[in-house]
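Supplementary Text 2. Reproducibility record for the structural model of the 162-residue chain.

All settings were left at their defaults, and a single model was retained for analysis rather than an ensemble. We include the record here because the model underlies the residue-level annotations in Supplementary Table 4.
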Amino acid sequence: MTLTDLTNKENELYLFTINLYNGKVNSGSKDLTLDKVYAEYKNVHKEYAKMANKDIESLKRGLFIQWYSMTEPNYLTGIAELDEKSELKIIAELKNRIDKNTTDNELNWMLNHYLEWNYVFEKFKNIADLRKKENLKNLTNKKPKMINRGQMGIYWNSIIEE
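Retained model, structure tokens:
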């Protein structure tokens, strides 16, 4: 799958999840259930993990999904239990990029935010000692850059300034 395919799939799954929560599921979606959304989101995360070592955007999205699965209720996100091997692959690639200094400011900025919930990464402490970086450029005014980036973009657009 391409990033565009994954973005479209995430948008479809998220829309269904929100509509289901709000009681607005239409009859065209009757084949989809919340359990199927959870399974499909698990597959989306696996796809990001497969591409994470070649594409920093996939790493960012995979990392976001891991963080979000631990910090928000699954009935609102459509994200439940993830594949452990895929989670490990994301963390290993993140560590690799940190060690080689090949992260970018946006990834570091996102990671700093995610680390506010330190319990999220506790199970990976034997793989990577993730720490906040200092003196990062503030990206809270970069709303247009977050469009068409799956649920990660939806989340960041909901909290960053215009």
